[in-house]
Structure formats: C-alpha cells, structure tokens
C-alpha cells in the first residue's frame, strides 16, 4: 500500500515542505514515484518517518539521525544516553532560569526586593504564593491603594521587613489568644485587634479606609493563599479567618461612630 505526500503529512502532523526537505537531504526518500513524478511512501517509509520524528522530538539534529538510521554499526543506545545527558543539563539550566524568573515576578508582584536567603530569614514560614500575587495584580492593578502599597513595599529594607514581621508575629499571637479564649468577634478586644491591623497597613503600606480593610478581610476568609500571608498554616485555627473578618467589619461599624471609635 502506498501513501501520498498529503496523506503522510496529515497523519504525521508535519508539513509537506518538511517531507520534501527530508527527501532532498536523503533522510527519507519515498520508495516509489508515480509516472507523473509524485512521491509514494511505503509502510517501511512510514516506519522510518516515525523513527525520525522520535529522534527529532528528543532534539537530535538531522545529520545525527541519519547516522543512527543508516550506519548499522551506530549504537542507538549510546546516542540516546548522550542525548539524555544533554537534556538533563538543559533541564537544570532551565530550572535555574525559572527560579530567576519567579524571583523577578515576586519583586514585581509583591514589591519585596530581597534575595531568596533574605526572604527566608525575614519571612520564615510566611511565603508569597505567586499565583495569588498574580491574581490580585490583575484584579487590583488599577486601584490607587494597591499601587501605593506596591510602591511602599518596594522601598522597604530588610530591616523594615524584619520589624514589620516581628510586629505581625506578636499581633498574631494576641489574635489567636482572643480567638481561643472565645472572645466575641464583635467584642472590644477583637475589634481593637482589627483596628491595630488596619493601622499597620496604613503605617507600612497605604491609607486603608474601613471599606478597603473589609475587602482585605473578606479575601482572608475566602482565599487560603491570602490568609497564609497573615497567619502561617502552622499557626492557623479552623474559623480564625472568619473570626478576623467579623472583627474587621464590626470595627468598621464602630469607626463610623466617632463617639465610639
């Protein structure tokens, strides 16, 4: 049974031009031609093409593929081992590039201009999820508060971040203590903690009116990636994010009443 160039092209997913190139280079010449000069490929030609495409997928150059297929003394296993080694080296190099790209993305999307070692030293368990940073960058990029927060974050030194994180760790312990003591989420103690959190945002990042603080708290309760920026998973308690959200919204009501704020 014979196959036309068009049939081979469609079944193998390669262009007719590629088949012509393989023919011209001698890598894959059709077994037959019609009286009109059209190429006709046999089952054996198709099997050879499958081998060629296999080696091409692994990145072998055409001249090396020709050597493997044509020279009976060529050891295909040796070629594959050598290619395996090259691919692993490329993977290692690409992984390093991925890490560099992720670090650059983190600087752009979180504003934290610290080296990986410095980030680990300062933030510890609190890590930035780049998927969350990307999502919020897309959602909030045109909001003035987000832009101001990013700009302020970019100016923070390692010492600033260390101070910020120390304050946050101490605040978290008091929040957890209030939660475990079953203090009402809309009670004075919880609302004071919520207001303290809002003032921390104002101090370190951007003006934070109560409606903005409410959106942030809603995000904490709805998205574990967001809450993990505030409370590391090892310190979280079931219901703690919702508790904080209630406290934040209760505090917003309190702040709207000057005589009670």
UniProtKB/TrEMBL annotation:
The keyword Transcription regulation applies. Residues 77-104 form a coiled coil. Keywords: Activator, Coiled coil, DNA-binding, Transcription, Transcription regulation. The keyword ATP-binding does not apply. Pfam families: MerR_1, TipAS. This is MerR family transcriptional regulator. One of its GO terms (molecular function) is DNA-binding transcription factor activity. It comes from Streptomyces piniterrae.
């Amino acid at each position: 049974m014979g196959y036309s160039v068009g049939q081979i092209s469609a079944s193998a997913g390669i262009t007719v031009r590629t088949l012509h190139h393989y023919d011209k280079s001698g890598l894959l010449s059709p077994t037959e031609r019609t009286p009109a000069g059209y190429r006709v490929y046999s089952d054996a030609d198709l099997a050879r093409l499958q081998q060629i495409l296999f080696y091409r997928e692994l990145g072998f150059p055409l001249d090396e593929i020709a050597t493997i297929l044509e020279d009976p003394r060529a050891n295909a296993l040796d070629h594959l081992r050598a290619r395996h080694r090259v691919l692993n080296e490329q993977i290692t190099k690409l992984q390093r590039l991925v890490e560099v790209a992720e670090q650059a993305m983190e600087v752009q999307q979180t504003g934290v201009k610290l080296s990986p070692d410095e980030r680990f030293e300062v933030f510890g368990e609190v890590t930035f999820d780049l998927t969350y940073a990307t999502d919020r960058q897309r959602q909030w990029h045109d909001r003035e508060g987000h832009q101001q927060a990013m700009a302020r974050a970019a100016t923070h030194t390692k010492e600033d971040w260390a101070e910020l994180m120390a304050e946050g760790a101490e605040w978290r312990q008091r929040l957890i203590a209030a939660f475990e003591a079953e203090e009402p989420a809309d009670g004075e103690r919880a609302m004071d903690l919520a207001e303290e959190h809002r003032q921390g945002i104002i101090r370190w990042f951007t003006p934070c009116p109560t409606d903005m603080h409410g959106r942030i708290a809603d995000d904490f309760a709805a998205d574990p990636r967001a809450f993990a920026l505030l409370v590391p998973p090892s310190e979280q308690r079931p219901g703690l994010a919702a508790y904080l959200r209630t406290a934040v919204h209760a505090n917003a009501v309190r702040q709207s009443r000057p005589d009670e704020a």
